[in-house]
């Protein structure tokens, strides 16, 4: 095992600028926490738990969460595109593509609806691959998202939201103290 802090040892970096050392994996495997792991036969070992997945709904909690949107939609907000505007934007494509685009952007969508619309687009065999990609991009660009609301019921109430946040900020670290590390002479 090489000493990674030796002068003269050239440290290379990966494409993200993180340092890579020749024996990184071996160092990790040699750590006492992983001593009992059979590394040579790990790929042949049965996992301790295998989840039973029946549908996409079983895994939707693992999707990346979108940022919360606290804004309230106002009347002044730009309305969606009219059918004529959609037809003008997609004038180079077949009318069937234009009709699907019109239908898809009229109803607001959340992440679950977006996934199901993507699957619906992919399932249409009469569309070319470039038309499917165009519809997906068009829906994301011109479709309306359902505004996300805070999960906390107190933060949904306009009268209580400000007070609740102030109380939470003041008491966030109550009971925790920070002590500086004392230097010891050895």
Automatic annotation (TrEMBL):
PROSITE patterns xref list: AGC_KINASE_CTER
Keywords from the named record: ATP-binding, Kinase, Nucleotide-binding, Serine/threonine-protein kinase, Transferase
Domain of life from the UniProt record: Eukaryota
GO molecular function: ATP binding; protein serine/threonine kinase activity
Keyword Transferase in annotation: yes
InterPro entries in the record: AGC-kinase_C (IPR000961)
Signal peptide: none
Residues covered by the AGC-kinase C-terminal domain: 35-103
Identification of the protein by name: AGC-kinase C-terminal domain-containing protein
Highest classification ranks of the organism: Eukaryota, Fungi, Dikarya, Ascomycota, Pezizomycotina
């Amino acid at each position: 095992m090489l000493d990674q802090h030796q002068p003269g040892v050239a440290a290379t970096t990966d494409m993200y600028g993180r340092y890579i050392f020749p024996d990184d994996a071996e160092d990790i495997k040699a750590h006492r926490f992983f001593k009992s792991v059979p590394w040579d036969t790990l790929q042949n070992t049965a996992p301790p738990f295998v989840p039973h997945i029946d549908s996409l709904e079983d895994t939707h909690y693992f999707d990346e969460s979108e940022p919360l949107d606290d804004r309230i939609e106002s009347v002044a907000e730009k309305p969606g595109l009219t059918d004529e505007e959609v037809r003008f934007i997609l004038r180079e494509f077949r009318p069937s593509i234009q009709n699907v685009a019109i239908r898809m952007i009229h109803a607001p969508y959340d992440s679950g609806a977006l996934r199901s619309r993507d699957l619906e687009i992919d399932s249409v065999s009469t569309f070319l691959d470039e038309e499917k990609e165009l519809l997906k991009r068009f829906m994301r660009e011109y479709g309306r998202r359902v505004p996300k609301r805070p999960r906390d019921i107190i933060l949904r109430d306009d009268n209580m939201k400000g007070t609740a946040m102030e109380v939470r900020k003041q008491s966030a670290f109550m009971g925790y103290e920070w002590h500086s590390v004392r230097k010891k002479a050895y």
